[in-house]
Amino acid sequence: MVLKWAERNGELTQPNGWLEGIRLPRVVGGKKVIRTELKPEQTLAFVERMREPYSTLVLLLASTGLRGEEAVGFKPPDLDSDNVLHIRRVFYHGQVDELETERLLSLDAVLHAELIARMRFLGEGREWIFQSRAGTPVNMGKARSRYLQPTAAAIGVRIGGWHDFRHTLVRSLRRAGVNPVVNIGHRRT
């Protein structure tokens, strides 16, 4: 789709050589994702109505701005005794990928007390903090259709997906004049 857009807008042409063998689609289309900026009481309604581990997953995404693929890749040792989350892997399309560079996310012991307690409880005796019944990390796509969308319908909110929690946090930080990347607290090691 990107290549077709670039060709259509004169940004590239086929004779350059590097596009040989790549067939550009004639028609480009797709679904438009709905993004909803959630009110705090709506986010809390998700946390209250969803069962575990999805309830805690919502709390984590909404309060830290992590991507779902990063969040479901946490193992219990990734939340250390200083309440620092070590982002070491992502779980995407059924595959666990180790990141080349570990990132750290410090959780405030007071502000994130409930989140920290929930994550420690969920990870107790398990390989993954957000673990499915099959013993693998939660599949975000399946969880969206099985748990997130029905909960959204029950609450009366139209939501695009898990990323809406991240977008809500980022938008509110930007409105407050805070750089969301710095505020979310990602640090590279």
What does this structure look like?
With 189 residues, this protein is of the alpha+beta class. The protein has two domains: 1-30, no CATH class; 33-188, Intergrase catalytic core (hpI Integrase, Chain A, Orthogonal Bundle). The protein is built from eight helices and three strands, in the order ααααββααααβ. It has helices at 2-8, 40-49, 54-64, 68-71, 113-123, 140-155, 163-175, 180-184, and strands at residues 84-92, 95-106, 186-188. The protein has a three-stranded antiparallel β-sheet with strand order 1-2-3.
Whole-number average pLDDT? 85
Per the principal axes of the C-alpha atoms, what is the gross shape?
Answer: globular
Q: Provide the domain count.
A: 2
Share of β-strand residues? 5-15%
Helix percentage range: 40-55%
Give the termini separation. 35 Å
Enumerate the spans where pLDDT stays under 50 for 5 or more consecutive residues. 183-189
- Give the count of helical stretches: 8
- In the sheet with the most strands, the strands line up as 1-2-3
Assign the CATH class of the largest domain: Mainly Alpha
Number of strands: 3
The CATH homologous superfamily of the largest domain is named Intergrase catalytic core
* CATH-scheme architecture of the largest domain: Orthogonal Bundle
